[in-house]
TrEMBL record:
GO MF term (any one): biotin transmembrane transporter activity
Recorded family membership: Belongs to the BioY family.
Predominant location category: membrane
Subcellular location per the Swiss-Prot or TrEMBL entry: Cell membrane
Transmembrane regions listed in the UniProt entry: 55-74, 86-105, 117-143
Organism: Xaviernesmea oryzae
Keywords: Cell membrane, Membrane, Transmembrane, Transmembrane helix, Transport
InterPro entries noted in UniProt: BioY
Lineage of producing organism: Bacteria, Pseudomonadati, Pseudomonadota, Alphaproteobacteria, Hyphomicrobiales
Keyword Membrane: yes
Keyword Electron transport part of the UniProt annotation: no
Designated name of the protein: Biotin transporter
Membrane topology: Multi-pass membrane protein
One Pfam family of this chain: BioY
A cellular-component GO term for this protein: plasma membrane
């Protein structure tokens, strides 16, 4: 791994921490707030690729584990990594990896702009929503002792915001791909 890779991984971990400074939107009947940090999964995967994107989130989890307040609402510490939202946090690693893997396979510089945006959007949808929801939903159901169908229904309020994050991430990834030609190797 090059020093450039390490800098990009650290940069994206910092970016996700900054996204955590945007105040979360809480919905009273759900224990999981709507945060901007989940968009970081999509951005890291699409821009950095599978390996570096996942490593950025492993670094973020390490920062959380040592108590740094890098999660939304200024949260951090080991208790967060064992609480009901821990599945989403650990799902970020897998989500960034899957998003990056799909983006690496579906998006090429030789494609036209709309096709690139669609490829990034599909990658972000599958990895940034599908994979993260899978981890988060399963853990939330287990940790809270709630039936899985009830947790799945509880995910519905989050879909609209997450679809907006997919669109933003796809447009941002396309802009980075065009504006920063030194980053074509997303691996």
């Amino acid at each position: 791994m090059s020093s450039r890779d390490l800098v990009l991984i650290a940069l994206f971990a910092a970016l996700v921490a900054v996204l955590g400074m945007i105040p979360p939107v809480t919905i009273g009947f759900l224990p999981v707030p709507i945060t901007a940090q989940s968009m970081g999964v999509m951005l890291a995967g699409c821009i950095l690729g599978a390996r570096r994107g996942a490593l950025a989130f492993l670094l973020l989890i390490l920062m959380v584990a040592i108590g740094l307040p890098v999660l939304s609402g200024g949260r951090g510490g080991l208790a967060i990594l064992a609480g009901p939202t821990a599945g989403y946090i650990f799902g970020w690693v897998a989500g960034a990896f899957v998003t990056g893997l799909l983006a690496e396979r579906m998006v090429r510089e030789s494609q036209n702009g709309p096709r690139q945006i669609l490829g990034f959007a599909l990658a972000a949808l599958v990895g940034g929503i599908g994979v993260v929801y899978l981890f988060g939903t399963l853990w939330l159901a287990y940790a809270k002792g709630i039936a899985l169908p009830a947790v799945l229904i509880g995910q519905l309020p989050f879909l609209a915001g997450d679809l907006l994050k997919v669109a933003i991430a796809a447009l941002a990834a396309r802009s980075v791909m065009v504006g920063y030609p030194l980053l074509p190797q997303r691996g």
